[in-house]
What does this fold into?
Amino acid sequence: MRYLPLSDADRSQMLGVIGAGSVDELFRDVPEAARLKDGIQGLPNHASELAVERQLTALARKNLVAGEAPFFLGCGAYRHHVPASVDHIIQRGEFLTSYTPYQPEIAQGTLQVLFEFQTQVARLYGCEIANASMYDGSTACWEAIGMARRITRRSKAVLSSGLHPHYVNVARTMARFTGDVLDTALPELAAETDAGRLIASIDGDTSAVVVQYPDILGRIVDLSPIAEAAHAAGALLIAVVTEPVALGLVKSPGEMGADIVVGEGQSIGVGLQFGGPYVGLFACREKHVRQMPGRLAGETVDATGKRGFVLTLSTREQHIRREKATSNICTNSGLCALAFSVHTSLLGEKGLRRLAEINHARAVEVAERLSAIPGVSLVNDSFFNEFTLKLPVEARPAVRALADRGILGGVSLGRLYPGADSLQNGLVVAVTETVTDEGVDAFEAGLREVVR
Amino acid sequence: MTVNPSGWRPSSPVNEPGEQATVTGNRGLMLEEPLLFEIGDIETTGVDFEAGTASLETRLGGLERSRPIGLAGLSEPEAVRHYTRLSRQNYAIDLGLFPLGSCTMKHNPRLNEKVARLPGFADIHPLQPVDTVQGALELIDLVGHWLITLTGMHSVAMSPKAGAHGELCGLLAIRAALEARGDPRAVVLVPESAHGTNPATAAFAGYRVENIPANAAGRVDLDALKARLAPDVAAVMITNPNTCGLFEPDMTAISEAVHAAGALVYCDGANFNAIVGKVRPGDLGIDAMHINLHKTFSTPHGGGGPGSGPVVLSAALTPFAPLPFVEQQDGRFVLVEEETSGEHHGRSFGRMVAFHGQMGMFTRAAAYMMSHGADGLRQVAEDAVLNANYLLRSLDDVLDAPFGPSGPCMHEAIFSDRGFAEGFSTIDLAKALIDEGFHPMTMYFPLVVHGAMLVEPTETESKAALDQFILAMRSIAERAKAGDPGLKAAPIHAPRRRLDETLAARQPVLVYRDPEAAEAAE
It folds into this structure.
């Protein structure tokens, strides 16, 4: 048992110090009837590193790896190239095996990284401040709705039909228990977003309008008129960004008047990982900081005047405020925040802009080629690196048929909106810098076949 | 803030007594590191791209960015050095004993990291057709099977992202079950010694929180609990072993009383490491319990996450489990998402998170569980408890151990600051431990013990490591009792001296401002 340093001699010596005859005496508070005399049944015993690696590698081989196929999936998780140094840094034991920085004198590494991360997120989103991360984009979105309720003391949130349906469903789950009212709608396969519906739905009970940017179909909507309408009614605008790379090219939500900007940070530094762990980004106005959920790193000085960093404003948090906390969140997504931050500082402004340009140019090219296939049309007028095609057939079986040919050809709206008849022919296609010319050729040829 | 002679803001205005000042502020291997924004700029990048795709017309809806973002960039060598230098200002399990009570800071095996990075797990998209991810679904099912078997429960919800998210999952399942029987109820009872997340979660789930007192032995006061049980009580949240490091000997009686009153039992499983392989929570009458894969099952804490908090459920709560989950149908694995929820899982309380949970943590936990096996996990609990009791009995003559006289502890030992000299408290001992090269224990928690010091060594510490820790603790405890003023200055050997947390909270500086912008604002 390679992870256990005690020898039998150690154990008996230690029992002697304790004054116990056996380890089982130490478990004397456990009711006799509940003690497992013969241990756990039905599980294998310990195994060598080689044996475990073999078994798990066999499981991993049963999956079709994104990097080994023409790959065009997005919808909240994007495949970008991550520089090798990012993974090296996050595997440094001092980052990987440290805890939440409760003892700041020996956690300045983590704390300074979080302070830098907060600064990067705030700047990227065009906001004044940001927190040290949430679990992921969907939970950050829900927390933002709760924060808007606390700030406005109103409880009706108007959700854009372009908000990721998983995010909508998370909000729906939580609203059922908190009493928030959610005004939702299904998206339409059209170039026009539902900005008009959002503005018309804002009233004196509205806490916030929630708009994804770019949205689930890839469309990019000007947030300024929605922000103006929300503010005129005393409501907040929450913008949700699932593809932060887009912000290298398009205006930030903060610039257009969003009060709270949240989103998924996965596409920078983190990788696909079948959906998690990811990293929720959360930014807002400084005046709302005391209603913000999650951890915050702040600058201060030590006893000799040296600059240093600490976790701060913890009177908002569960370990101090208990049932009055702004959120129950504790462990968040520190290591993924580090990955995001390292990748962002490697890119820098110049690299992020260049990465965004390449993504957009590739997406424009692929959109033109695919929409030239007979019967296939492009839904979007505007998009960044993701767009929606309307197929002449249902997209879900088409995606499966493409997978049978070894092509991972986008996300069918039928998967995301089961039962919504008007959306069944919609296929959302993401194109990043990782897409190859051969991959595009294969996808185009495959799609021609499956829509025939 | 003084600028040091080399011009960097992280200044070193005061050097240790008798120490020669350095021009850089560095002291040998103790390296100062400026902020990213002080060394990088927006023209530098550490990433090369393929030579340009011809710039086509853009389709951005007229929303092209016109202002700079302000993201500082670094070349690759600068970036690697920046983060490596920062990493050296962190304490970590890889460096030494990290006895944070209730946090289970055990060794993080590197095999876990290796398998999590296999492309078949790391490079697959959550929305790929399920036939292309059968191995991933099988892995989730496998981890679920281990958790169900180890806890003796009926089912498991794998999607919660961390412990507190798992608590929420459990309470929402409880609330959904009570509502389904037309009896929603309003109150959740939580012991005073509970983690802060427990009352925060109950409040988030829409319940009113009431405390249940502890008895003199540090356990739930069964009579007080029974007296409070009434038709308005939805659930009782118990941590077992509790946050004083003690097993609740009345657990079965508590569960019976709670069930008799029509309520349900939630167990905070943060301390499962003490009993894994020894006791199955399902045999104690528990209805829901989260498991911190980042505690008991060795996935790394990463400086504050990511965690993973699967929740095991009793048969009564299983129909209300959140979506999505993995099932086996006709020899293949399927993912039950929204679309099938109407058929056989119509009572699910819904989705808690986008996608399917913390896959990267599942692979790590799987590697750990398979490595230890059923026999090894039992040994984990035994060694964790042995190590904690060894610390308890090696220190209870110099430190007050409030529950020491009543018998053994489980996986963590608790001490108080009783007997310290006037004006000295737990924080002084903790900061002195830093100078001795250890991470301090959990301080001032739980609240039921004055100046609490909660020490959890875990099973991955050798006897030699424990003996060195004991030596340091005994020395510092004697100094605290004698009122050694030197303790007040500790730590003096860490990258920073005690930090001014009051200043940080009174004048929050949460993002870096460029000096020009900061000046303009003033």
